[in-house]
Write a structure and sequence with these properties.
alpha/beta, Non-ribosomal Peptide Synthetase Peptidyl Carrier Protein, Chain A, disordered C terminus
């Protein structure tokens, strides 16, 4: 599969951009487990123009992260055009436009999935960004605003006409947020539309090797993007790749091995941060790492309250002693349930 000049392997696995999750340390961890394409956390175009340091830092790229895209969102065409030009200076491999974020503070202000309520403006913005940069431009969006406006089949053709190089579709409407089940039938309809010739990337509910294989085999997508299922489970990409290549499931990751991974993650998270900030940045992961362990609630609470490396290390050693022999929560278990 190619996105413009970017050559990806057959059946690529893509890490979805997630605010406050896919920061540089977690991206690098997922890369180690076989991610083929990654994105920045999503970047506000207005903040880029105002040169907000925290926002500009989101666009910084480590050489090992390529191929890599910077994802932008905003409601003003001029801001999106200018921010795309700034993003280009950070030397990503592509620019991605977010027309899919359902969060109220973004969508209700007309950005993200809010653009689905103003398709003419959405298309003007897309064409303007494509024209403003020499990089491939991709789009991530949803089926539509709500159940009564699932416009993705027609919208996909219109976006293709704007010159985008690939399209990612999350199989829910904005109204669904992340509830219910993703509708892959419409994703498949877009992919199998004979008028479509750009890569179609499917997103939504891919939390196991079996579901990833079904996305490729049943719906014909060119790639799958994985988001929430990968939080705290970076090895999911390795599990999926192995299953796609061999048809066999890998043995489950043991908790003792998971602890070593958490320690490595914490060490990576310390770069450029104080000890307290590094530990706090891990809390979103501590809430999902070790998911499913019996009688784990008290230990999880202590992890979420920890403020130092010493506290975290002591708790991790306790986890190994008590649960280290057990299998970590895995995509295989998720599928079995």
């Amino acid at each position: 599969m190619n996105i413009g000049p970017i050559i990806l392997p057959e059946r690529p696995l893509i890490l979805a951009p997630m605010e406050d999750v896919t920061d540089a340390p977690y991206r690098m961890l997922c890369k180690r487990f076989g991610v083929d394409l990654m994105f920045s956390e999503f970047v506000a175009s207005e903040a880029v123009i105002r040169k907000i340091d925290k926002t500009l830092q989101k666009m910084e790229i480590h050489p090992l992260e390529h191929p890599y895209g910077i994802q932008l969102y905003g409601k003003e065409i001029s801001s999106m055009v200018e921010s795309a030009k700034v993003a280009e200076q950070y030397e990503p491999d592509l620019i991605d436009i977010n027309f899919g974020c359902p969060v109220k503070k973004i969508a209700m202000k007309g950005a993200g999935a809010g653009m689905l309520r103003d398709v003419p403006n959405l298309l003007k913005m897309t064409a303007a960004v494509v024209k403003a940069t020499n990089l491939p431009v991709t789009v991530k969006t949803r089926l539509g605003w709500d159940e009564d406006s699932k416009i993705i089949v027609e919208l996909a053709e219109q976006l293709q006409d704007c010159g985008i190089a690939a399209l990612t579709i999350h199989g829910r409407t904005r109204a669904q947020m992340y509830l219910g089940h993703a509708d892959w039938t419409l994703i498949g309809e877009v992919k199998n539309n004979p008028r479509m010739h750009i890569p179609i990337i499917g997103n939504g509910d891919i939390d196991s090797p079996q579901k990833a294989k079904q996305a490729f085999d049943k719906y014909g997508v060119d790639a799958v993007m994985i988001g929430r299922a990968a939080i705290g489970r970076p090895w999911l990409f390795k599990e999926i790749r192995h299953y796609l290549d061999t048809g066999e499931l890998l043995p489950p990751v043991l908790v003792k091995d998971q602890v070593e991974l958490v320690k490595e993650h914490l060490e990576m998270a310390t770069a450029g941060r104080t000890e307290v900030r590094a530990v706090r940045s891990m809390r979103r992961f501590f809430s999902v790492y070790f998911k499913g362990l019996p009688d784990f609630r008290d230990t999880r609470v202590k992890l979420l309250q920890a403020e130092s490396f010493e506290e975290v290390d002591r708790l991790l050693d306790h986890i190994v002693q008590k649960w280290g022999h057990l299998p970590a929560y895995s995509s295989t278990e998720s599928e079995a349930k």
